[in-house]
From TrEMBL, chains A, B:
Residues 20-108, 140-405 form the tRNA-guanine(15) transglycosylase-like domain. GO terms for molecular function: metal ion binding; tRNA-guanosine(34) queuine transglycosylase activity. One of its GO terms (biological process) is tRNA queuosine(34) biosynthetic process. Keywords: Glycosyltransferase, Metal-binding, Queuosine biosynthesis, Transferase, tRNA processing, Zinc. This is Queuine tRNA-ribosyltransferase. Homodimer. Within each dimer, one monomer is responsible for RNA recognition and catalysis, while the other monomer binds to the replacement base PreQ1. SUPFAM superfamilies: tRNA-guanine transglycosylase. Residues 284-290, 308-312 are annotated as: RNA binding. It comes from Candidatus Nomurabacteria bacterium RIFCSPLOWO2_01_FULL_40_15. The active site is at D97 (proton acceptor), D303 (nucleophile).
Amino acid sequence: MPPIKFSILKELGGRTAKLGRVGILETPHGVIETPAFVSVGTKATVKALTPEQIKDCGAQVVLANTYHLYLEPGDERVKKFGGLHKFMNWQGPLMTDSGGFQVFSLGAAYGKQISKIAKTPLLMLGEGKGVRSEEEIAGSLAKIGQDGVSFRSHHDGSLHYITPEKSIEIQHNLGADIIFAFDECTSPNEDYRYQEEALERTHRWAKRSLEFHKSKDNSKTQALFGIVQGGREKGLRKRSAEFMKSLDFEGFGIGGSFAKEDMETAVKWVNEILPKEKPRHLLGIGEPEDLFMGVENGVDLFDCVAPTRNGRGGTLYTSRGKINIRNAEFREDTGSVDGDCGCYTCKNFSRAYLCHLYRSHEMLGGTLGSIHNLYFIINLVKKMREAILDNSFTLFKIKFLSKYRN
Amino acid sequence: MPPIKFSILKELGGRTAKLGRVGILETPHGVIETPAFVSVGTKATVKALTPEQIKDCGAQVVLANTYHLYLEPGDERVKKFGGLHKFMNWQGPLMTDSGGFQVFSLGAAYGKQISKIAKTPLLMLGEGKGVRSEEEIAGSLAKIGQDGVSFRSHHDGSLHYITPEKSIEIQHNLGADIIFAFDECTSPNEDYRYQEEALERTHRWAKRSLEFHKSKDNSKTQALFGIVQGGREKGLRKRSAEFMKSLDFEGFGIGGSFAKEDMETAVKWVNEILPKEKPRHLLGIGEPEDLFMGVENGVDLFDCVAPTRNGRGGTLYTSRGKINIRNAEFREDTGSVDGDCGCYTCKNFSRAYLCHLYRSHEMLGGTLGSIHNLYFIINLVKKMREAILDNSFTLFKIKFLSKYRN
């Protein structure tokens, strides 16, 4: 029996010819109602939150980062503890990424500052994300070979070598319900030739990841997703989707450091090709506009550090757009962060109290802000799900975005 | 009707001739079973914890700091919000200190580093505490007059002037159930002459605090405690206890920057004089040995930042003494922080996971560590209470301390 089962309950379809759908994803640690936002728990903790608080935000599933956990505390240590579920005391579904993204972004950045050159026009994805500039790529400490990548730890500079097999072995040790094939996530600033080369590498690595995974008993309890890459190039994106489709993956990731304007077309190209009956995860995306785009284009799962990172920094989501809760205007504000929100923070505390906590550098501010943002984003995707079921998705989208962008 | 009611249920007494007792302190926001440890919520938040987590630690009462809240967010702003209970969403009993301690330690320290000279032999008390060295006293920016103290904010250097009346007014605006008279907390390094002068000032200020308080309606809902000072001098301590006893306070604080070896004698001198029927709060004390000393010498309430400050730093209490959870020896340790502990942290997480969180600078480490430490200390005082009721206090003390000091 395969480790996961995905069933589609309803499709957006109709006159809109949209790819969106509502599904149920069954995993060994419970059910995920899709589309769903996946909370990011980089280092085996959703920053600042206890497992109960994560659950109270409506979270169904948590994604941890292979690269970080491989370095600290070490995947073998986690295995000795009976896996990530036990280690971090999260009993629901878990995912781990392949580590590829961080090997290239964090590993490459060892020993020098990430240049800002290429950063501005790109979306910020993933934890500790830095998009490589050309300068960096030239001077990079991550060496890409046909077999894998050697890189230096961003902690202590120690040398490491990750192959597709090694990535899967680490993820087997961590023991998440859904794991990802090892891939190379390129910058959209790279030229076509590099994108194509990198894509071929990602495809070879996907095949090797899959073969290694299938040869192990863990494939009975852990599902492997392949990652579609190809940057902003239509031809490459389609080639990648066709290639991944041809392999026996149990679901797919859609990766890439996107320029915002390229994202929708890339997702559409890919999802028109990927087999309908398998789940799709758009990696590292979580802003409200992008979630609507993803859902209507057939994405089932999203993850992003934005809600918790923004939450710690005091940037809070509201139905009227984001606010910086530190601003002086909120010092006297007796209202909740968002009048329409039912989260723990909004039910119990005023904007003025949160403003005070952030201005006083109190940890509770980051906790309450993360709770609010995570609830807000998780609940937004949940409402999209309900809207598809109610045949009111487009109306909901227009109403939400016109208020949000107001 | 007075705002609080204190009833003694049982005394330690007997052959030991100890002053310890078990009581019930009724406040407008609920009952405190004494002896009890008071959680410190300096800036209207027990650092890193939600009100529910504070309660789950067994906390019955929280003490916030007048000096900090006066500066940020401002006591008048808190008043507009309906007081501290509403502002911070803590529905149980609340206390505020007088601000005197911080005016002298933090206010005086504005613009330069607190010297370490006098620190080592002294206990660390209170939030953000620094004991003044002679050097500092000489160069202090806090100016003590007969009427009050002018000082500069440690935030922004702005000038402020606090009189006894002002301290009480601020505490009326904050609205805690139990408030304290304005006092001067001297360093044990000061000479006798200065101690005597400061004590006379504290006495005059206590009287003025009381007169101002009694003239206001708030005295119907807020109880005022006078603070006994006098440093390490028997004569001064006794004089102070006699003076405070003569006034119509509803309870007493015992203040001072104690050298560890002076504390027991000072507490005994004072509590032999203070009226038995009123509650006594030993300010800023919270290490296990000192809690036993205080309880057997008739202290009913304690507060200290040590549990939460240690918790954030990774120093955790166990029945076999304190441990630094960051240490490499705990990386593989599947056991809970303390095998005898029933706190949320110990019930759900291993030492190895906590070690990982602290080493990875994850906020959840500070939260889980604070929960454990707060539970440990609150529960220790609760067990002392039960031991007095069971006639087993001395046995419990010997057993606990022999293991703890092991």
